[in-house]
Design brief:
Blueprint: H1 4-28, H2 47-65, H3 74-80, H4 104-124, H5 129-156, E1 179-182, E2 185-189, E3 205-209, E4 212-215, H6 221-229, H7 241-250, E5 258-261, E6 264-269, E7 272-275, H8 287-296, H9 304-312, E8 313-314, E9 319-320
Antiparallel strand pairs: 1-4, 2-3, 5-6, 6-7, 8-9
Helix pairs in contact: 1-4, 1-5, 2-3, 2-4, 2-5
């Protein structure tokens, strides 16, 4: 028997699932067949692996809810398992690009089959709250891989990638670098709501913070370039020991995607090779590079608790909000989202 409550709960879940799957397919719609199997570095994954892995996760979730669930294929599970030991031996990440089977066509057949299974699963099962939470985890997992997929497409194709949708980037407003003072004391960090959150946001707990000052805006390309020109990548005293080892081993001289051409620093992204915009936030730096910059600037990275309080604590109302602007959902006015479809587009 299906109650009205069941329908109310399932419909939004089903619609969200369909929307997520549609966006995943949209991200790879314009790729050539050869693009799907290429792994450009040990820290990336081939597009076909992402397509298959986000589907396989739903299989693991359905097997948790229904103990009689049968996986689509043992071969697929072995290839698509990232690090979930309870489901077998994970595939080595840096070897995902040397596996030719399952083929790209088979992966898409798998993607469609699992989509149909999840649709049927949501429509035909009386899902309790625990089951709904598990499916929501799957949805957020796919959101994460959409982001990872975009990272990997930049590394793989850069300006050769042709997005299906592309919106014009809004003009940036003028800003002045400044710092803000945050009061210390006992702060309750972590998520305190009823909606979905990641496990690392739990449990909510109390921490003590000293008074501190934090920059209001991200470090810019211009500021990071000062660090580089002052010998930042050549001076070991700014680096953690293992970070300095990576600098020497990998011959780091700048952030990823920066290139020095005819004596001028440029960046390569979905727009192609373009002149470095000094006012843009510096991107594609590792933790070690960020930490070294801060030491050079006679500052430090904030702790997780310091960052959370600066971003989410409303001192006037004496309450925590989900986002820096409040509890309202993100919009293009206050966020740069995947669904903004900017792709770095400039006027």
């Amino acid at each position: 028997m299906t109650t009205s409550t069941d329908i109310e709960e399932r419909n939004p879940l089903l619609e969200q699932f369909k929307e997520i799957r549609s966006r995943t397919l949209e991200l790879v719609k314009t790729l050539e067949k050869d693009d799907f199997v290429v792994q450009t570095a040990f820290f990336t994954s081939p597009p076909k692996w992402h397509i298959g892995h986000v589907s396989w996760i739903y299989e693991t979730i359905m097997s948790k809810i229904d103990k009689n669930y049968e996986f689509y294929s043992k071969e697929f599970s072995e290839y698509l398992n990232s690090y979930y030991q309870q489901f077998g031996i994970p595939q080595d990440k840096d070897k995902r690009g040397i596996i030719s089977r399952p083929t790209t066509e088979q992966i898409f057949q798998y993607f469609n089959t699992i989509s149909q299974r999840v649709n049927h699963f949501i429509e035909s099962n009386a899902l309790n709250n625990d089951a709904i939470k598990l499916i929501i985890i799957g949805l957020h997992h796919e959101y994460q891989h959409q982001e990872l997929l975009v990272y990997d497409l930049q590394h793989l194709l850069a300006e050769q990638y042709r997005p299906v949708r592309k919106n014009e980037k809004p003009h940036s407003s003028n800003f002045e670098q400044k710092s803000i003072d945050i009061k210390g004391g006992i702060y309750t960090m972590g998520y305190n709501g009823e909606d979905y959150c990641y496990d690392i946001e739990l449990p909510e707990h109390k921490v003590y913070l000293d008074d501190y000052t934090i920059d209001a805006f991200p470090v810019t390309n211009e500021q990071y370039l000062e660090f580089m020109e002052d010998g930042g990548y050549d001076t070991y005293k700014y680096w953690l020991s293992d970070g300095w080892e990576k600098v020497k081993k990998n011959e780091w001289k700048s952030p990823m995607y920066w290139e020095k051409i005819d004596g001028q620093w440029k960046v390569r992204d979905f727009l192609g090779i373009r002149k470095l915009n000094p006012k843009e936030p510096v991107c594609h730096v590792s933790y070690y590079e960020a930490e070294a910059y801060c030491k050079w600037a006679k500052k430090r990275l904030p702790t997780e608790a310091e960052w959370e309080k600066a971003a989410c604590w409303n001192e006037e109302k004496q309450q925590k909000t989900v986002f820096p602007w409040g509890n309202e959902q993100p919009t293009e006015q206050n966020s740069n989202l995947l669904e903004s479809y900017h792709w770095g587009v400039q006027k």
